[in-house]
Amino acid sequence: MTDSGEQMDVPRCYTTALADGTRVSKTDARIVACGELDELGAHVGAVCAALHKLMETAVPKQAEVLQQMRMRLYDVQRNLFAIGARVVGAQARAAFDWTKATAVLTADIAQWRQCGIRFGGFVLPTGSQTACSVHICRTVCRRAERSVVVLQDRDSVEYLNVLSKYLFHLALFINHVEGVDEIIL
């Protein structure tokens, strides 16, 4: 708005479209959250590539576990895309079972805990290159979670909260698989 009350034209490059075609500022909370979810999905993709590389030198049993992790992370990427679509108003194209998706991650955490992988105190986000990449995913996930909290999407927030816990335990598990000790604070 100008001092005279006239509407100023906002350059199109400062806006983007929601699923219904409505143009909003690129700083709109929905667009910010969608961008952070997209960033997280890209980081998860980098972890998938790293896991594939690890599989090349792993013993068969270990390679099978790494492949299962990769498949789970592909599901995570799909879920992040669904949350992003939901955030920008494309719920019909973004339907998935939130309860099941969260339960799957929780079951993996429980399985790793049976292997001795559990929270034993705060750790420095270090270790193998792959584990460090997972820690980056975890921190980006927490940021995306905070952005989605602003939008009051409880199902998505709950999923992202469990996902960040999953990523923490995944980093610990990868360090375990690669024989790298955690640095506990």
Query: How much β-strand is present in the residues?
Result: under 5%
Radius of gyration: 19 Å
Compute the number of structural domains. 1
Shape: elongated
What does this structure look like?
The chain is mainly alpha-helical and 185 residues long. It has a single domain, classed as Hypothetical Protein Ta1238, Chain: A (Up-down Bundle), CATH 1.20.1200. Helices cover 65% and strands 3% of the residues. The protein has five helices and two strands. It has helices spanning 29-57, 60-87, 98-114, 129-150, 154-177, and strands at residues 15-17, 23-25. A two-stranded antiparallel sheet has the order 1-2. The chain is elongated. The model has no long low-confidence stretch (mean pLDDT 89).
Write the layout of secondary structure elements.
Elements: E1 15-17, E2 23-25, H1 29-57, H2 60-87, H3 98-114, H4 129-150, H5 154-177
Antiparallel strand pairs: 1-2
Quickly list its features.
mainly alpha; Hypothetical Protein Ta1238, Chain: A; 5 helices; 65% helix
Short description:
The protein has 185 residues and is mainly alpha-helical.
